[in-house]
Predict the 3D structure of the following.
Amino acid sequence: MSEKNYQIRLKSRPKGWVSPENFDYVEAEIPDIGDGQVLIRNLYLSVDPYMRGRMNDAPSYIPPFQIGEVLEAGVVGQVIKSNNPKFAQGDHVVGMLGWELYSRSDGSGLMKVDPSLAPLSYYLGILGMPGMTAYVGLTAIGEAKKGETLFVSAASGAVGSVVGQLGRIFGCHVVGCAGADDKVAYLTQELGFDRAFNYKTAGQVHKKLAELCPAGIDVNFENVGGEILEAALWNMSNFGRIVLCGLIAHYNDEKMAPGPRGMGLIIQRRLKVQGFIVFDHMDLGMEYIQKAAGWLKDGQLKYHESVAEGLDQAPQAFIGMLKGENFGKQVVKLD
Ligand code: NDP
């Protein structure tokens, strides 16, 4: 275990695609702790699409990263010193901490996790924020029901893979798309999706969706935007719901893209289109964690992750995830 602290700080804001030059890898002091604080040795760090938005200097639901400051992420770690009665030395915890080996926390937003229930990295994925996002989006926003057709984009990723499996548990006909043939095979052969396709090689996506969803799409769980959203819109059933979870196809755009054509269909087909942020639904998120632990144990939920080794690999893991190089949830193991 490293005797020193290392951190990744924001060096510059990207214009268009994010690149390794936007990050600084620096040596730093292991922080001292005061009253009420804990020192955490970070073990796994999550890289997530929303971080691309935080690299821009623009107001959003979460403040932008600041140049020269340590980046922030979902992190699982172990408490190594504690001046906080809620946490003991040795406890494993998850929270929003730095892209660094050692973090100081006053305990706010920090949650204990049980390493005997699941591998620690799962608390950043299927038993963490992405899993909660899938559940909140599918239940509270999409109101998916038995017998309905569910379509999910970025389907093999951290959120999408859980969306599809929950859809199966709820009795939906589940269709997904992903950007590589091995990902597509994983969806149908491992995760139980009814149908799946590679959006890069399928030809016109709206035609493919018409073929795979002949009764129309009742719930579109949108992770991507752009052409895929437009194709889904054209295939929606009357009274369908579009769950706007993310628009990753646009996160590195330098100029705002034109909106999807076919907006009139929202009126004609009486569609509901709703965006959401998982953190507004934490009660439901906690309900999901209880259920998901059981579903994982009895094999109804399966999980795949890509693990990058070492803090210095975090920028590349993040960039690779935005490009689709991850297979399942992308995490970074900190040495
Ligand atoms: P993933 O694990 O799914 O990784 C991102 C994936 O997106 C890539 O692997 C790639 O897969 C796909 N992708 C990237 N660019 C494109 C593109 N141009 N067209 C189609 N697919 C693309 O990430 P997450 O599961 O963490 O996030 C999925 C979505 O959910 C994101 O949009 C994210 O912002 C959103 N999100 C929203 C939350 C909320 O509260 N609203 C919370 C968490 C996530 P492929 O190989 O298949 O192309």
Notes: The pocket of NDP is lined by residues 48-50, 130, 133, 154, 156-160, 178-180, 183, 223-224, 228, 245-246, 248-249, 276-278, 321, 324, 326, 329 (CB under 6 Å). The longest helix spans residues 282-297. The chain has nine helices and 15 strands. Residues 129-279 form a domain with the Rossmann fold fold (CATH 3.40.50.720).
